[in-house]
Design a protein that fits this description.
Length: about 400
């Protein structure tokens, strides 16, 4: 018998069901209260307002506005910047499509910047290479709970007078030089999707300290209707991105647990990192000096000179232990997706790409060597706030044995 199959399998908590989520009496009580009140809309209920108030207080910002998804949060942020058709918004080559299509829907051109292959985060150097006179904003994505190196990025952006939007969907309470991710640029956009550090299944929130941007974001979430204004109207074209009171009730209860959830992720990730540090052929992701990571996932770089088939081979070996992992994360960078390759947007217009400079839509792989290297090497492992020490011991032992089984002789 294969000795690996004799190993006792430990079922790891999954953030896709209750085993890896912190839902309990608090969420149930809040949802029950909302249902019994019969008020399921945040414009008239209490939980949406409470969530926004306490989320802003938690991050130390002036404004927070809840919306119905992380994609909506990014769209709200871009709409607040208010690009003209054909303006360019720099973003990362490795991000969720929900952070990219809002750029297109606001008539702007997504311009992809390369990433650091060791973190998959965008850098100031990569951003500078794709800046142009048409750059309207920069979106930085703090991937896997690991903040980008914001000091250099903000210095570049501030020198050019370009606003920075932080996509903080995966990085609740991560810090950079003592500041929370999402509070460093002009706008922070967060996601409450199923697998995040706090969740409502779907949902999002945007934060800012800028009065004018706050006004635009509030309006964009609410069909541009000026609630509370002396003579309200629908001031500009926008959507209904409101969160429901049911979502807000769950989010409010989850917010109370966020400190614990993040601390537990960090504690368990630290233990796993310690258990893996001497294994040749793999290396865990580390935050930059002065930053803290809050581990949406736990990532390894896998050396295919030492491990057969690299990240793919190691992931296959880990299946023996019922450990789910994602080699190469999203498999291909965003610019290779069909929507960008074929410019499939509105009818057969190719809008807004028909307004783009050729350089802005240059998707040659030669421009994205860091991206391709980073995706080739990365293995994404699960982690959540329900992991305990015995889960980590099992996971570390499984990785060690899988590495040994796939080591190139």
């Amino acid at each position: 018998m294969n000795p690996q199959l004799e190993k006792e399998i430990v079922k790891l908590p999954s953030d896709q069901d209750i085993s890896g989520r912190t839902f309990g009496a608090e969420e149930l009580a809040a949802v029950t209260e909302v249902l019994q009140s019969g008020v399921l809309i945040t414009t008239k209920g209490k939980y949406g307002k409470l969530l926004e108030k306490e989320f802003a207080e938690k991050l130390g910002v002036k404004y927070a506005y809840a919306c119905n998804s992380g994609s909506a949060a990014v769209h709200v942020a871009i709409a607040a910047i208010n690009p003209n058709p054909g303006d360019e918004i720099i973003t990362t080559s490795i991000t969720d499509m929900g952070a990219l299509t809002p750029i297109i829907f606001q008539g702007a051109i997504p311009v992809f910047a390369d990433v650091d292959p060791k973190t998959l985060n965008v850098t100031a150097e990569a951003i500078e290479k794709v800046l142009s006179e048409k750059t309207k904003a920069i979106i930085v994505t703090h991937l896997f709970g690991n903040p980008c190196e914001m000091e250099a990025i903000m210095k570049l952006a501030d020198e050019r007078g370009i606003p920075v939007i932080e996509d903080t969907a995966q990085s609740f309470l991560a810090t950079c030089d003592g500041k929370y991710a999402g509070t460093i640029g002009k706008i922070g956009a967060f996601s409450f999707q199923q697998g995040k550090q706090m969740t409502t299944g779907e949902g999002g929130i945007v934060v800012t300290n800028d009065d004018a941007l706050a006004r635009r974001m509030y309006l964009f979430i609410n069909k541009a209707w000026g609630y509370g204004d002396a003579n309200p109207d629908h001031y500009f074209a926008s959507l209904n991105y409101r969160m429901t009171e049911l979502q807000a009730a769950v989010a409010y209860a989850q917010l109370k647990k966020l400190d614990h959830s993040v601390a537990q992720r960090q504690k368990m990730a630290g233990l796993l990192d310690e258990k893996l540090k001497d294994i040749e052929g793999i290396e865990s992701y580390k935050p930059a000096q002065g930053s803290t990571m809050t581990y949406w996932k736990f990532c390894l770089r896998v050396d295919d000179q030492l491990i057969e088939d690299g990240a793919v081979g190691l992931a296959k070996a880990l299946k023996t232990y019922d450990v789910a992992s994602a080699p190469r994360y999203v498999v291909k960078p965003a610019y290779k997706c069909q929507v960008f390759q074929e410019q499939n947007t509105f009818g057969d217009s190719h809008y807004p790409f028909n307004l783009a400079r050729p350089e802005a839509v240059d998707y040659d792989d030669a421009n994205f060597q860091g991206t391709l290297k980073g995706l080739h090497d990365v293995l994404v492992l699960p982690i959540n706030e329900c992991y305990e020490e015995h889960h980590i011991y099992f996971l570390a032992d499984s990785i060690r044995e899988a590495v040994e089984a796939t080591k190139i002789k």
